[in-house]
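Listing S7. Sequence submitted for prediction.
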Amino acid sequence: MIGSNLLSDSHARVIGDLRVSITDRCNFRCLYCMPETEEAADFYRVRFDALKNPAPPTPIMREWKPRSHLLTFEEIERVVRLAAELGVNKVRVTGGEPLLRQGVEGLVAKLARIPGVSDLAMTTNGFLFPQKARALREAGLQRVSFSLDSLDPANFKKITGRDGLRSVLASIDLAQELGLHPVKANAVVIRGLNDHEIEPLAEFARRKNLSFRFIEFMPLDSARAWQKELVLPGREVLRRLQARFDLRPVKSSSPSETAKRWAFDGGRGEIGIIAPVSEPFCGHCNRIRLTADGQVRTCMFSLSEHDLKPLLRGGAPDQAIQQRIREIVWQKEERHHIGEPEFVQPQRTMSCIGG
């Protein structure tokens, strides 16, 4: 292995970004993750008929992890501290929906005090954010990203299974008011569902001075209904936006940045395109994930996981846990295999992996 103290894999990528899921539960039922509504079923049924495929496969039954299986906040803090000592400096708290976990602001305060953690962020659907926002900011949260797949209330409900658009929009305003920066919003674009809203979402970002990310539809849905034909390639998204807006390329701040970015003329807001399906960025990936139940995942599409709980709960010293983390990271996959014949979708959905 590389001799420095930094976390490196066998492909010479240095790991600096840790996504920490704190719950597998979510109060939304997004079509691209855990669809359960009749409207979502109808969408898939129509698309599969058009593609001359049989009915979508039966979704994997969701079984929430018992509380005893989830890492405690103290265990999460320990893993993050040990990772920070190995060079991880970016930490993002995710879920499921992280604001469903009681006392999350206390965890944020613990993580904010860890030496070496210079970038502490959270991804949330925004529904509960107004209740927690000020406490999270005071605890040390620096950045926040919201899911915003539609600006149309009916389409938002169709995609998420919940009537929550007004709450998300209010959360975006509140996050800006509290000085969280940058405030980001993410939309998973699915052909035939919300691709007609690309331009309005970009205009919303310009008007609100947001960093808005358009994300390709990935095979992480519990319905096992992902089809490449439903993916709107990032280049097509960009072509449409360039036809509508005067966009200037934004220089990447790091080779490991997942989004290709463009700023609006006039300096208010920007858009980013994350295209893991059509333009994989695996060669520069510097990210690992810790699931709510203590599994380390070296890729969102990993088929294997590495359980830290036996060490965390078995009295292992810090050095042993760090050595195990090093061993896990060294095995990080060279790339995912989406679109290749050998690709196998992970058993866990996005909500159980952590975004």
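Caption to Listing S7: primary sequence and predicted structure tokens for the chain studied. The two ends are 28 Å apart (CA to CA). DSSP finds eleven helices and twelve strands in the chain.
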